[in-house]
Amino acid sequence: MIQTDSEGNRGEHTVRILAISGSLRASSTNTALVRAIAAMAPTGMDVTLYDGLGDLPHFSPDLDDEKSPAAVIQLRALLRAADGVLICTPEYAFGVPGSLKNALAVCRREVGAPSRVWWYSRKHE
């Protein structure tokens, strides 16, 4: 992809997308969908699948600074490095799964990149 910087210079830039599946299931359809999207990414786009959703601790404002756990620091770094975020999630009880909601709370300040959420749900997903 060709981009122009603030001074008008043109150059190549790989678009970095962080893809997050909202499901923790090993055989998740949402994770399969994210993997398929990553495999079909065009030249000039790098899709990284985040697989640490289950490793994140419950959000606590007391740990929302330099005391943040390693899993939180890693996700925040991935989000800051991304040009965009793709979230593919099932629906549980008319909302997003608790683990995904927790991840969004933990990283609420880092989600400044363009984001897209795809909802896919089927019975028992």
Structure described in brief:
The protein is α/β, with parallel strands linked by helices.
Write the layout of secondary structure elements.
Blueprint: E1 2-4, E2 10-12, E3 15-21, H1 29-39, E4 45-50, H2 70-81, E5 84-89, H3 98-106, E6 115-119
Parallel strand pairs: 3-4, 3-5, 5-6
Antiparallel strand pairs: 1-2
3D structure, described in words:
With 125 residues, this protein is α/β, with parallel strands linked by helices. The chain has one domain: Flavodoxin domain (Rossmann fold), CATH 3.40.50. The protein is 26% helix and 24% strand. The protein contains 3 helices and 6 strands. It has helices at 29-39, 70-81, 98-106; strands at residues 2-4, 10-12, 15-21, 45-50, 84-89, 115-119. The strands form 2 sheets. Strands 4-3-5-6 form a 4-stranded parallel β-sheet, with helices on both faces. It has a two-stranded antiparallel sheet with strand order 1-2. Helix 1 (29-39) links the parallel strand 3 (15-21) and strand 4. The longest helix has 12 residues, at 70-81. It is globular and about 40 Å long. Mean pLDDT is 80; it is low at 1-6.
Keywords:
125 residues, Rossmann fold, 3 helices, alpha/beta
Give the N-to-C terminal Cα separation: 36 Å
Q: Could you estimate the helical fraction of the residues in percent?
A: 25-40%
Which percent range describes the beta-strand content? 15-25%
Specify the number of helices.
3
Average predicted confidence as pLDDT: 80
Which strand order do you get reading across the main beta sheet?
4-3-5-6
Q: Superfamily at the CATH H level?
A: Flavodoxin domain
| Succession of helices and strands | EEEHEHEHE
Radius of gyration based on Cα positions: 16 Å
Q: What structural class results from the helix and strand content?
A: alpha/beta
Domains, number: 1
Q: Which CATH class? A: Alpha Beta
Main beta sheet: strand number and arrangement? 4 strands, parallel
